[in-house]
Design brief:
Layout: H1 10-29, E1 41-47, E2 58-61, E3 64-66, E4 73-77, E5 81-87, E6 91-98, E7 112-117, E8 120-122, E9 125-130, E10 144-146, E11 150-154, E12 165-172, E13 178-179, H2 191-206
Antiparallel strand pairs: 1-3, 1-7, 2-4, 4-5, 5-6, 6-12, 7-11, 8-13, 9-12, 10-11
Helix pairs in contact: 1-2
């Protein structure tokens, strides 16, 4: 019986041999993972009377922190109100401590905290909502805003008491956070394309040995 050797067209074979396996590797590395705040580095700033003016009467210790377990920072507002800040993978909790009996945040265009990521250009935040365990009266989702790399919490005009807390839950897209130092993301290849490219690439190394 005559023997013959299966060969792909020469030019196509050379292209696949050169690019198929590297593309398979890149595509596998580009598979999406669930985004979250955990392990991100955030910088906190108190803004008043608008979202462009840092308030001189507020200080954070530390101002920039990595999100992990436990409390990340404490904000000192004029030496009479202290805010304990705890950030988890999908939540920000702020506990109010004050020496005043019945304080009220000044009414303004903005009076509150903004967190800005210094580790990711896109945190992947898709939504934000007020957790039901929040005890700060009058705070609702209209006071929350966010962008690709920042979160803002505005409590202007609200009264607060010692021991009250504010909890904000975040929802994320399926895209991984994009590091600030990275280049544009590599387009994701479908699983079917990966399998097909891998199979074709295999012929480049086996074509001289496979006979039918």
């Amino acid at each position: 019986m005559p023997k013959f050797q299966y060969r792909l067209p020469g030019e196509l074979m050379r292209v696949l041999s050169r690019y198929a396996l590297p593309l398979c590797f890149v595509a596998a590395m580009a598979q999406p993972v669930h985004a979250a705040l955990l392990d991100q580095t955030l910088s906190a700033t108190f803004y008043y009377p608008d979202a462009a003016t840092p308030y001189a009467g507020a200080a954070f210790s530390p101002q920039t922190f990595a999100v992990g377990t436990g409390q990340e920072s404490v904000a000192d507002i004029e030496g009479v109100t202290f805010l304990s800040i705890d950030v988890s993978a999908d939540q920000v909790t702020i506990q109010f401590h004050t020496a005043l009996s019945a304080p009220t945040w000044g009414t303004a265009e903005f009076n509150g905290i903004a967190f800005t990521s210094t580790s990711a250009a896109n945190l992947g935040i898709a939504g934000a909502s007020v957790n039901g365990a929040t005890t700060l009266a009058g705070f609702d989702s209209s006071r929350l805003s966010f962008g690709t790399s920042w979160i803002a919490i505005d409590w202007n005009g609200l009264s607060y008491r010692d021991g009250q807390k504010l909890m904000v839950d975040f929802q994320f897209s399926d895209a991984a956070p994009l590091p600030i130092t990275s280049a544009s993301p590599v387009p994701e290849l479908s699983i079917l394309a990966i399998v097909a490219l891998g199979t074709l690439a295999g012929w480049s190394t086996m074509r001289r040995h496979l006979k039918f």
